Amino acid sequence: MCDSFNEMADGFNAMLAAHREDEMRLRSTFETAMDAMIQINDRDIIIGWNPQAEKIFGWTREEAVGRVLNETIIPPQYREAHARGLERFLLSGEGSIFNSRIELVGLHRDGRELPIELAIAPIKLADKYEFSAFIRDITKKKESDDLIWKQANFDTLTGLPNRHMFHDRLAQEIKKADRDELKIALLFIDLDKFKEINDTLGHSMGDIMLVETARRIGECVRETDTVARLGGDEFTIVLPELDDSSYVGRVAENILHKLVEPFDLANEAAYISASIGITLYPDDATGIEHLLKNADQAMYAAKNKGRNRFDYFTPSMQQTAQTRLKLINELRGALAADQFMVYYQPIVELATGRIHKAEALIRWQHPELGLVSPAQFIPLAEETGLIIGIGDWVFRESARQVKRWRALSNPEFQVSVNMSAFQISVNMSPTQFRSADSPYKTWFIYLRELDLPGQSINIEITEGLLLDAGPEVTGKLLEFRDAGIQVAIDDFGTGYSSLAYLKKFSIDYLKIDQSFVRNLATDPDDMALSEAIIVMAHKLGLKVIAEGVGTEEQRKLLADAGCDYAQGYLFSRPVPADEFEKLLGGSL
């Protein structure tokens, strides 16, 4: 009997030990769990509260245990639903939130709400229910998800909807427009000469300008309109639910007025404008890509008409755009196909009537279209960056030609001027000048290989290039000066004329724009301006070249005013090299 009793006692002690071990294991799990673990009874009273619950909700175990759960971690707006749900489960055993993970909002002790993930398991003990809640704070997950969503749908620089969100918004507006039989306007905005801001002031200043541009555009539209940034300096606006078409024009006008106001960039005033293309849904197109293409074409039409304006899409723009795209594609292969030629226009010394210089002017001999106007293909070359390679070719071709003409001697070829000092002017666009890919440094080497001095070449630049010229522009001008290459300002008087940059930079020639020369005999103001330019240039040690001289009267007026050189149809049109050599045989 004694042995039997001892065996029973040992067994009972073993069971107690096992139970205590299970309890310790459960308690350890409860205390160290990564999730908050909260236990409540069937009266919604908290009976269990682990350290993670303290961390998430701010209540200590001592404070929380014994409190009503509904008044502790549940926000006021959800308390009635919680109470009804608990009551329904206790009466029917049905509960939609049990044994599944759901996302809710919890209440911290300090009153702030936080996103939580919750799972509740009911446990029946002695005909009564207890509930174990497993709660995870998902604030960081939500923040991460929000960040990922924002990065996928919004422009990080301006905070505007990006291309993806723009497509989504426009698609939604199209559905509403179809339902309500209303129109939508799509505006495509491109900043004029924004690249020059980036090149002269730096990308950080360009970014500031883009942010300010976004703000200014936003001030011009309704809250229901969508302003988006597609990338670079391109913005779009969706104007939905249009019942007054005049609103579209007012928005475009307001944007243009806002954007021409000065931008304060690191205490420097900078100026831009915009070109805006407008297309209407469903009048012009019904698909998003088609609408975008229409607005883009209208924007280019606005640019071609002088910038700082807006234009509406018309069907004829489609053909223009197709022609333009075809020309760009053919332009890409024109250099390799040897389709370019250099024509030369004489620059005549007015005092003697003899040819002292020439301006090199590129021509494109298209296999189907014949001679394509430079006004038609040079802007395309600028836009696509092809001007870099084309400009390099023009420089080298001109250098070879000036080498030949400088070598001409009177016994071999009857010329009326000392050809050893002959000079050719080569135009260098702002894109060429500012581009990091410009091969201009190889030009100095090429001239040495041809045994030509720098003075054999004159580089023509525009006034706009010198406006707020950054270190890269100043540095290149100094390099040209050090190489002996002279510099002329083309079309002087039509841009941001300033005496300051004539002093600051090493300039050798001013070219009076033909718009002044054209009316010398009939407009006293143009004559006075031309005379002032000549006097000013001479005071600064610069020579003056008048462009577009077409009549004998213009030539005489310029000569009497002391102008040094002239070029224009009075003397000769631009001609191929072999015809130019014939002109060199006599005076003009």
Strand content: 15-25%
Let me know the largest β-sheet: 8 strands, mixed, barrel
The CATH homologous superfamily of the largest domain corresponds to EAL domain
Total number of helices: 22
Query: Mean pLDDT, as a whole number?
Result: 86
CATH topology assignment of the largest domain: TIM Barrel
What structural category do the secondary elements indicate? alpha/beta
Net shape: elongated
Distance between the termini: 145 Å
How many strand units? 21
What's the domain count?
3
Structure description:
With 588 residues, this protein is of the alpha/beta class. It has 3 domains: 12-141, PAS domain (Beta-Lactamase, 2-Layer Sandwich), CATH 3.30.450.20; 155-313, 2-Layer Sandwich (Alpha-Beta Plaits); 337-583, TIM Barrel (Alpha-Beta Barrel), CATH 3.20.20. Helices cover 46% and strands 23% of the residues. The strands form 4 sheets. It has an 8-stranded mixed β-barrel with strand order 13-14-16-17-18-19-20-21, surrounded by 4 helices. A 5-stranded antiparallel beta sheet has the order 2-1-5-4-3. A 5-stranded mixed beta sheet has the order 7-8-6-11-12, with helices on both faces. A hairpin with a 2-residue loop joins strand 9 and strand 10. The longest helix is centred in the first third of the chain and has 31 residues, at 2-32. The N and C termini lie far apart (145 Å).
